[in-house]
Amino acid sequence: MLSTNAFNALLKTLEEPPEHVKFIFATTEIRKVPVTVLSRCQRFDLRRIEPEVMIALMRRIATAEGAEINDDALALITRAAEGSARDATSLLDQAISHGAGETTADQVRAMLGLADRGRVLDLFDLILRGDASGALNELSAQYADGADPMAVLRDLAEITHWASVIKITPDAAEDPTIGPDERTRGQAMAAALPMRVLTRMWQMLLKALEEVASAPNAMMAAEMAVIRMTHVADLPDPEQLLRRLSDGPGPSAPSPAGPGGPGRQPAATVAQAQATLHAPSAPNPSGNGTATALARAPEVALARYASFPAVIELIRAHRDVKLLVEVEDHLRLVHYSPGRIEFEPTEGAPDNLAQTLGQRLQGWTGVRWGISVVSGGGAPTISETRDARDLEKRENARENPLVQAVFAAFPQARITSVRTPDEVQAAVGAAALPEVDEEWDPFEEN
């Protein structure tokens, strides 16, 4: 909290310290201390106290104070202190006052607003099993017992992180602040749950903590987060989806309670089934109709882009002016086939032209395009071709005797544009009024 002038005054004192004075500075913002001050001090970085040392310290303090407190209560205090001896001693003082002689883990848990660790593990199991009703009932029971919804979600995130770390480093399970029953359950979870489920759970819990912190009703936000996590728990991962697609769809029964009533299928499903029934059948030796349809789908989607000008028209139709200018000015086409473009960039081409073009085409067509960049062999760009054509028109126009006479009379004149007779006739035809078969008389009666 010292200003620059205060630090300068302190620096003068540090340069010529009195013999009978020892300065001890403590700060949590070491980066804000000037280098001139740090260079004149011996620096000691105080790290977080290990859980074993913290539990022994609090046990010694409780014994000296004549207070009875069990090991589970000390473990809760150690975990809440997060390595700070000052916070741990303050919580220990409060716990001894609440205990009135003998302090238990339940009393410390009520004092800190925490949920029972075992019950949080039960809630974790219910969420991962997809039991939304059971998870909501367990959350409501913990809330009725005094647990804070934010603390419950924070404990779920801590369990998720703990199980993930145990899965990578099994030695992390040997935590003195965790009881043997919790340690056994955590090791079983780490062995049974895949890492993708744990990482997805972690991301959803981080989002849920933000929502609960900003929601007008913390309990409602926590319940919505639990519902969301239980419904996501049984969703297949991308690997399972690909396996199902490659294996082909199995026989599907009509939905018992769909949106249109019992036994009624959605309209899209019915239309698809009718199209399948009326389509001509062909023998399929492999029996893998779905894979064949998936392989044929990109070819159908790319059929309309048989040539590169069709790609240019696609860019122009989506009004991506920036990409259109970059393609026309900096893309020298080497090879084109539907779904694949190979080109040579010009000297001033953007570095991300291939990436941008591939992303845009995939988004517009729904098919992944292969865009390759080579160092040579490209044809002239569209702009170069257009400029060469215009230059040829102007050179041909300059050879016209009438144009040469105009330049002789007006030496400063210049050719701005050249139009062929066909272009002039087309422009006149577009600007002319439409012809009528009979002359119209406004005073003629119907």
Strand order of the largest sheet: 3-4-5
Topology as a string of helices (H) and strands (E): HHHEHHEHHHHHHHHHHHHEEHEHHH
| Structure annotation, total helices | 21
Instruction: Tell me the fraction of residues in β-strands, as a range.
Output: under 5%
Work out the number of β strands: 5
Assign the structural class, choosing from mainly alpha, mainly beta, alpha/beta, alpha+beta, or little secondary structure. Answer: mainly alpha
Radius of gyration over alpha carbons? Answer: 38 Å
Ends apart, CA distance between termini: 96 Å
Structure summarized in a few sentences:
With 446 residues, this protein is mainly α.
Describe it for me?
With 446 residues, the chain is mainly alpha-helical. It has 21 helices and five strands. The protein has helices at residues 4-15, 35-38, 51-65, 71-81, 85-99, 105-112, 117-129, 132-144, 149-168, 180-192, 195-214, 218-233, 238-247, 267-278, 289-302, 308-317, 321-330, 353-365, 382-398, 401-409, 421-431, and strands at 68-69, 102-103, 331-337, 340-345, 370-373. It has a three-stranded mixed β-sheet. It has a two-stranded parallel ribbon with strand order 1-2. Strand 4, helix 18 (353-365) and strand 5 form a beta-alpha-beta unit. Helix 4 crosses helix 5 (85-99). The radius of gyration is 38 Å and the shape is elongated. It starts with a helix and ends in a 15-residue tail after the last helix. Residues 250-295 have low confidence and may be disordered.
